[in-house]
Amino acid sequence: MEIIRNIIGTIGAIILTFNTHTLTYTDKRVEEEKKSDIYQEYKISSDTSLEKLAPKKSSASTGSTTSWWSYPSDIKNCTRDGDDLLVLVNKEYKLPKTYAPSDLVSASLSGIRKGENFTLRKITIEDLKSLVKDAKSDGIDLSMRSAYRSYNTQISTYNYWLSANGGSVSATDKVSARAGHSQHQLGTAIDFSSSEIADGLGGTFSGTKASKWLATNAWKYGFVISYPQGYESTTGYSYESWHYRYIGKTYAQEMTNSGMILEMYLRSKN
Ligand SMILES: [Zn+2]
User: Fold this and answer.
1) How many angstroms is it from 189 CA to the middle of ligand 1?
2) Domain range holding 189?
């Protein structure tokens, strides 16, 4: 069954990879899914305490035996404002449904390929511009697969993966955040890709020169990997070599010096 889910997930990823109009697609999809049972179930859950989807036991941080990808039963509101670069957004802490950054601009201002399809907070642009330029000087091509996503877009994104995973909540929770729990709602998270993998999204990115370049250099520009390999039980997500979040150069330097991954660094600040 797990193998079948993986295959279905892979097919879903391939479909998404070749779909350059993901937002249009998911908007249409959400209209369809508003009528479906899955959407209704998720909608009801997202509007209440998520009890229907979340386990009854408390989070892994309290030492329980809950699976690493599970949500805790007691979901809290973020302790910092959404505009704060150090706000901790994870499975335990969620952003308000109403939160949206006020300074979103076209990601194309950074010069990244396919940036015209996405928006980012203005505060990220200058550093991203330098990152893209310096990567290019090193012979590295970078493109963008996702950036800001609203609370409502995240509902359709989660539902897309839920559907792609054959309705398996556990498989979906490993790879996609429920609405309010996504760093993409901050307008400071980026999913990168590269011409090396035909601008595809997902696991194949880890084998690219672009991925290695980012892993080594992104922090110098204020961008850090959110879900590193080997820390799944800490972050609650599978390894995402393509997903970076901007926390600014000063904090990224501090985090790198500390040796902490982003999740632990932000927990120490929240
Ligand atoms: Zn992402």
Assistant:
1) 7
2) 2-267
- Quote the number of domains for the chain: 1
Distance 123 CA to ligand 1 centre (A): 18
Query: Would you say residue 119 has pLDDT above 80?
Result: yes
pLDDT for residue 49 is more than 60: no
Expressed in angstroms and rounded, the spacing between residue 230 Cα and the centre of ligand 1 is: 18
By CB atoms closer than 10 A (0-12, 13-18, 19+), residue 50 is buried
- The Å distance, Cα 2 to ligand 1 centre, comes to 23
- pLDDT, position 65: 62
139-166 residue pLDDT tens: 999 999 999 999 999 999 999 999 999 9
What is the pLDDT at residue 203? Answer: 84
Cα 151 to ligand 1 centroid, rounded to whole Å: 14
Ligand 1 centroid to residue 156 C-alpha, Å = 14
- Tens digits of residue pLDDT in 184-225: 999 999 999 999 999 999 889 999 999 999 999 999 999 999
Distance between first and last Cα of the chain:
39
Residue with tokens 């150090």: 86
Ligand 1 centroid, distance to 268 Cα (angstroms):
22
The CA 247 to ligand 1 mean position distance, Å, reads 15
